Amino acid sequence: MAGKLYLVPTPIGNLGDISRRAAETLAAADFIAAEDTRVTVKLLNHLELKKPMVTYHRHNCGTAGPAILRRLEAGETCALVTDAGTPAISDPGEDLVALCAAQGAEVEAIPGPCALTVALSVSGLPTGRFTFEGFLPLNKKNRRAQLDSLRAEERTMIFYEAPHKLRSTLEDLADVFGPDRPMAVCRELTKLHEEVLRLTIGEAQARYAAQEPRGEFVLVVAGRPPQLEEADGQGALARAEQLRREGLSLKDAAARAAEEFGVTKRTLYNPMLDQES
Length: 277
Ligand code: SAM
Known about the structure:
The protein has 277 residues and is α/β, with parallel strands linked by helices. It has three domains: 4-113, Tetrapyrrole methylase, N-terminal domain (Cobalt-precorrin-4 Transmethylase, domain 1, 3-Layer(aba) Sandwich), CATH 3.40.1010.10; 116-221, Tetrapyrrole methylase, C-terminal domain (Methyltransferase, Cobalt-precorrin-4 Transmethylase, Domain 2), CATH 3.30.950.10; 230-276. Helix content is 44%, strand content 18%. The strands form two sheets. The protein has a five-stranded parallel beta sheet, with helices on both faces. A five-stranded mixed beta sheet has the order 6-7-10-8-9. The protein is elongated and about 75 Å long. The termini are far apart. S-adenosylmethionine binds next to helix 5, strand 7 and strand 10.
């Protein structure tokens, strides 16, 4: 019988966040594939587990991946872990899952800690629709192209960033989205020095101009406020204002004009509110 690859999330800073199911899966696996065995052995010691380990990381995934797949095909079970968080999210676990999927090997994901969901949930920004952008490309041109593609993005955007690149990333974010765009800088989540700053991009720049960025960061940036389609929007707004003058409440005027012009209420309500305040 073929084996299975288990994706086992590990704490992103607080050992208490390992789940019972994650620990049981590690205990039951035939072997563990770890990004860095020195990091994982600390977790195994905490769980009082001893397990055979192989490494699977960015620099050996081309050969380690097929080797793990062969062991799965021979009937073994493997628990894939990274240094922290959910395997396959911004790490090479993604390639191993794709390889297993392509070769018909079974993969099961155990839910658990992930920096992006922790940051999004605590950010105070809209969570209904979001886009995870991972690490921006290192290459300046590709990085700029990725950010340019997000200029009109209305969903909340989530970025991973290393401390030594934080300042230049904030500069790029300010260029593309403007210094007044709200964001949350989520640092050292679940750790002793956890910090969540809810501010604008410009304020974050000022803060980190004065203070050396240290630790691990997730940046959560508000999406662009919904914009009116020029033609429909202007007509709808004018109609809403007319209805307002006729005595309708702001909410009802926006709703009626939105319905008549086939635009969303929100695109009218906010500009009307601005005009009246
Ligand atoms: N797979 C991991 C996950 O589920 O979040 C992410 C791996 S990625 C290689 C590492 C990045 O995640 C860090 O550079 C940082 O942006 C983010 N990260 C991980 N732990 C964090 C923490 N405790 N606080 C803030 N950001 C964290």
